[in-house]
TrEMBL record:
Keywords: NADP, Oxidoreductase. InterPro entries: ADH-like_N, ER, GroES-like_sf, NAD(P)-bd_dom_sf, QOR-like. CDD domains: QOR2. It comes from the Bacteria. This is NADPH2:quinone reductase. It comes from Amycolatopsis xylanica. Pfam families: ADH_N, ADH_zinc_N_2. Residues 10-318 form the Enoyl reductase (ER) domain. GO terms for cellular component: cytosol. SUPFAM superfamilies: GroES-like (SSF50129), NAD(P)-binding Rossmann-fold domains (SSF51735). GO terms for molecular function: mRNA 3'-UTR AU-rich region binding; NADPH binding; quinone reductase (NADPH) activity.
Length: 330
């Protein structure tokens, strides 16, 4: 099979497409023929060495496709099933072995490319909006990078819950996407965030800030919160935040700072609950996936370059298998 391999940490150039042996399923695993893989900032963190992992490895934390082989002891999954998974390595490949208990069946009408575009980021949006800070009707929240993959989902979903959204984006072109997703106000850059927050909250501040950017947005995020507000720092696409004196949280109004992770929110039955919530809204047309660009497997490096340089909006995916063989299977 063809796969992308990282043999050393570094820039996008370390993503090398090569031939590898087909995987064989261990007990409790299945082999999936991959049609599409999601491209996420966590892939950049692993590739660059920010999150250390043993080398070499096949990147890609999210994918979708068709089950082709079953390992011993697998129940409830059959050959030919259309499935997706998230937060597991190896998706940048034509085939991957995945633990059966981490697979989610795709409902009819949700294609593999859509699934690879929304599962990881959609479940992230779900736990942020329902658990990290539960948005209630009338709440105003800040969503940073509101035209990115997670940002667009957060914005749409927060509005479905009755919230108001102040989004930030990096360029005027991305402002249109954020507004189309339902953002009440969009700030290009971060300098105008304080004024936007004051205007929409009568000077009170927002209930929560959902920040996947990190260092460049930290100060603006902290300043935007109302007393006892929640600062959800769920990523660091712009770089890690330096150590923070806890006394700053006191001065900001007894605010809460948390660094949540998807893996801690999909244990046990939570995986199925969150995945089904995402796919139900996608299938009903109430939540829309915005795929900014799709790349063939061999162009994974270009996908990473575009992601890191913020050349794209929405979600980036790699297309790997044959769509017809997967999308038309009931």
């Amino acid at each position: 099979m063809r796969a992308v391999v990282v043999g050393r940490t570094g820039g996008p150039e370390v993503l090398e497409a090569r031939e590898m042996p087909d995987p064989r399923p261990e007990p409790g695993e299945v082999v999936v023929e991959v049609e599409a893989a999601g491209v996420n900032f966590v892939d950049v963190y692993f590739r660059s060495g920010r999150y250390p992992v043993p080398l070499p490895y096949v990147p890609g934390q999210e994918g979708a496709g068709m089950v082709r082989e079953l390992g011993d002891g697998v129940d409830g999954i059959g050959i030919g099933d259309r499935v997706a998974w998230a937060n597991l390595p190896g998706a940048y490949a034509e085939r991957v072995a995945v633990p059966a208990h981490r697979l989610v069946r795709l409902p009819a009408g949700v294609g593999a490319e859509t699934a690879a575009a929304v599962l990881l980021q959609g479940m992230t949006a779900h736990y942020l909006l329902h658990d990290t800070y539960r948005v209630r009707p009338g709440d105003t929240v800040v969503v940073h990078a509101a035209a990115g993959g997670v940002g667009l989902l957060l914005t749409q979903w927060a509005r479905l819950l009755g919230g108001h959204v102040i989004g930030t984006v990096s360029t005027p072109d991305k402002e249109k996407l954020a507004r189309a997703a339902g953002a009440d106000e969009v700030v290009v850059g971060y300098d105008g965030l304080a004024a936007a927050v004051a205007g929409l909250t009568s000077g009170d501040g927002v209930a929560a800030v959902y920040d996947g950017v990190g260092a460049p947005t930290f100060e603006a995020s902290l300043a935007a919160l109302r007393p006892r507000g929640v600062f959800a720092l769920f990523g660091q696409s712009g770089g890690p935040v330096p150590p923070v004196d806890p006394q700053r949280l006191n001065h900001a109004g007894s605010v809460f700072l948390t660094r949540p992770n998807l893996e801690h929110h999909i244990a046990g039955g939570e995986l199925a609950t969150r995945a089904n919530a995402v796919f139900d809204l996608i299938g009903a047309g109430r939540l829309r996936a915005h795929i900014g660009a799709a790349y063939p497997l061999a162009e994974a490096a270009n996908a990473h370059r575009d992601l890191e340089r913020r050349r794209s909006a929405g979600k980036l995916v790699l297309t790997i298998g044959e769509p017809a063989s997967l999308e038309t299977t009931g």
